[in-house]
Hints:
Blueprint: E1 2-7, H1 14-25, E2 28-31, H2 32-40, H3 47-54, H4 67-75, H5 78-105, E3 110-114, E4 129-134, H6 137-148, H7 152-161, H8 165-171, E5 174-177, H9 182-195
Parallel strand pairs: 1-3, 1-4, 2-3, 4-5
Helix pairs in contact: 2-5
Amino acid sequence: MKIIGITGGVGAGKTEILEYLNNKYGASICHTDKVAKKLQKKGGVCYGAIVEHFGKSILNDKEELDRERLSDIVFSNQSELEVLNRIVHPAVKDEVDRLISMEKRKNTNLFIIESAILIEANYGSICDELWYIYVDDETRRKRLFYSRGYDTKKIDEIIAAQLPKDQFLRNCDRAIDNSGDFSETMLQLDQIIKDL
């Protein structure tokens, strides 16, 4: 089984690429943010430590994490983001390891781990290759504004909290330009899969 890590800044179009790899090549996809959300639910392994550090003001009326309140805190304060990451990432990695073992038993050929923080969380140690998906800044900002409804301030904070492009390029085995028409991206992906 090939284990591929896919990363890139928010708004780079990773979702469309993952759907393509799943539909055409039968890849099993693991979104680390979905794993993290599950582990942060009330009763999940990360919930108690998050509430203990950030306080009950980050909870909604059902006593679940208010993700928007929490993201407002961590994206405007680097040290708080680091605290959250130290709570969540080791637990996510344990769960990803468990999923990899499960997929190996199912004889899966291609397992893809998608994470915006693949490099920072050291997923290179469990992946055969890391792929960086990127788009030019203007396209990225437009996508975040139109598809997610983020304002300029939120877009700036999110982009500032992520690694710069050169760091992604230094740490990844392949770079996929997703700025143009998606058919161009598909050609890049088909060639990479052929090379694997």
